[in-house]
């Protein structure tokens, strides 16, 4: 070797032997180890480090990275190349002061200075995980401003926990394991989602959970029960609650489109329908949708109609709906399924109550003029020999050019996104309904054109008749109060106090009616308007009851007790406040305000919280007036002799017919 460790050798030769001598003794070669010097080692580069931060945030800076040379040793060559590398960075133009969003405290969050085009991020509140994002952008004049923060990345802790549990069950199902507690997760999701959502990220978490649950149910050893089906549909309905509309709009900007919801329901219909043991029909009705699943033999002998007659448990909105769907038996018997099970078809029909308000399809001159209906058949027929017929009831009167639209993701040329007018034709039935005849399975709706003088914002304004009626009523009652106040010292009595309070309750009701017509899009204000309307309407009835009570007490001569006078106020204002408080407590304010009006919802029985007490008041007034009419006992009257103050004197006789007529006509006006 020329370096490092090696060996050395030496040899010797044996001369002879001669004349009978002996052979040479010992080895003829000898070897030993040797070491000349260390071998030279060439230098070798270590990997590059990461690029360090840029020296400038804008306007062109530098950033560098380094690498270390290992060696050389014992006279070896150095590493070839440079030890450092420099490159330019952040060459974009530095923003001017007016192109930077200033630090701002918004929604209890401090947002640091951010240049236009960048997005700031802060942690979600303690009850959620993730980040709140807020973008700084430029307006038309080049001035930077903060956009509204988005909470798409924020998921409440409750939904995060359900999401984690579902993913664990899905992981087990994918490995062929049966996981206990799947139904409990569905129940927990239904209960949690019924309490509402806090962030748009919660909606996306619910969709993710439902998608994973569908995949779990798709496994043969995790068939969904009837309770799972109800919990699933109710969870979808909770997604579509009116208070989630703004969060849906935010979720659609950056997250999955509404198509995720359509696919989710379609997949669930496929999974649940194939798990149905016999040929049967299933229906689930919620506050926001109706889902019907029909499992029929291929050689069926009857059309599928929606809604079916005789269904029980239909809510008022679904029972009164005039939307109809007809799926011909020929579609099932002549279709070519793409699945192995040729013995049955599963048809799913979904009627969405308020999905149109979430879709926001309104343009300058068009509006979604119907509810939304989805029709799906599994296994999917190769083609439809008979079209699907969907009859829609119009949501708005006075519209023209009714057009049937369907969801078609393949139609990229449509001006409505994934909504297309192809494959359906509209058949007018009358001015209030239109039938869509479609040669494809999809999600359908009606799009209509607004009249030039018809504007959605104007449609929310109170009608002229309503404004004139409420205005005249309020002005007349206000004039009456002014007159009473001006001569109060001459007419002061319990009856006058009752009349003034009654007038105030009616005036307040009129004002709230006019305000409530324009606040349907603001959930909080609409709920408050509905609750106060409930209170003031009940107060009006209660003050009529109080007036009848006062008249009865006057007839019977029991009006001298001051305790009774205080009870008038408790009955007129206290009883309505108690009824409203109990109603709000039991319903958690659900049912106060709807999509179309700020009043008690017709669903869920909340309206009886008004009808019941009002009917009781009418009955009480009738009883008191009848008792007062029949009683011949002395009662109090007011007289004003000369210039003296009013004095009370007794007068025998029953309640005057004019007083009875006043009370009855008051009830009739209410």
TrEMBL record:
Membrane topology designation: Multi-pass membrane protein
Gene Ontology terms: cellular component: dendrite; plasma membrane; postsynaptic density
Alphabetical UniProt keywords: Cell membrane, Disulfide bond, G-protein coupled receptor, Membrane, Phosphoprotein, Receptor, Repeat, Signal, Transducer, Transmembrane, Transmembrane helix
Residue stretches making up the G-protein coupled receptors family 2 profile domain: 88-158, 462-619
TM annotation in the entry: 464-485, 497-516, 528-546, 567-586, 606-627
Domain called GAIN-B: residue spans: 287-454
Lipid biosynthesis in keyword set: no
InterPro entries: AGRL2-4_GAIN_subdom_A, GAIN_B, GAIN_dom_sf, GPCR_2-like_7TM, GPCR_2_brain_angio_inhib, GPCR_2_extracell_dom_sf, GPCR_2_extracellular_dom, GPCR_2_secretin-like
One of the protein's GO biological processes: negative regulation of angiogenesis
A Pfam family hit: GAIN
GO molecular function terms listed in the Swiss-Prot or TrEMBL record: G protein-coupled receptor activity
PROSITE patterns: G_PROTEIN_RECEP_F2_3 (PS50227), G_PROTEIN_RECEP_F2_4 (PS50261), GAIN_B (PS50221), TSP1 (PS50092)
Subcellular location per the Swiss-Prot or TrEMBL entry: Cell membrane
Chief site of localization: membrane
Protein name stated in the entry: Adhesion G protein-coupled receptor B1
Native organism: Hucho hucho (huchen)
